[in-house]
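User: Teach me something about this protein's shape.
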Amino acid sequence: MPPKEIADYATGLCREVKESNEVSFSLDGINNFPHITIYQLIISDKNLAKLIEVLGLTVAKISPQKLEFIGFQEHFGFLGASFKPFEDIKAAQREIVEKATTLREGRNVLEVDDPRTKSWPESHKKIIAEYGFDNLFDFYNPHITVTRLPDFEIAKDLTGKLTWPFEEFKAASIGLYTLGD
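Assistant: First, the predicted structure itself:
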């Protein structure tokens, strides 16, 4: 989780974007929180308590992670502040994913045959097939999603217009969230 000052800034950016653009969701600190996604997976309700237990034991061993801003990016209409994927954050992600994925059930968050992934390398598609998610390991892009725009071109254009005043910060807490359908 980003520190409060960072979360508040990301929420303000979302409001700024929303003032002149249609958005799919808004950061508000109530229903949608600024965060740095480590992993998305689909599990059944019966495995939630086990996931909380496994993650609690795993993250207790992970130190606060340094995040260094590298720019804004657009991905499938999502607009976010991206951070350098240092080896220690990728190692922390791998540790969390390897523990959590054992509880994964059912469909993937992103399917290998999704038309949006057609031009992706086979090594990336293999990760999607094995873990059900695309933003992992060598392909990890730590970021804070500011919002999602239905018009991907507007989202791409905004990447060059937004400002981020924080060169770096440390994320020292981890949250577990449910993803809306």
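Now, about its shape. Residues 59 and 96 are 7 Å apart (CA to CA). The two ends are 22 Å apart (CA to CA). If you'd like, I can walk through any region in more detail.
User: That's plenty for now, thanks!
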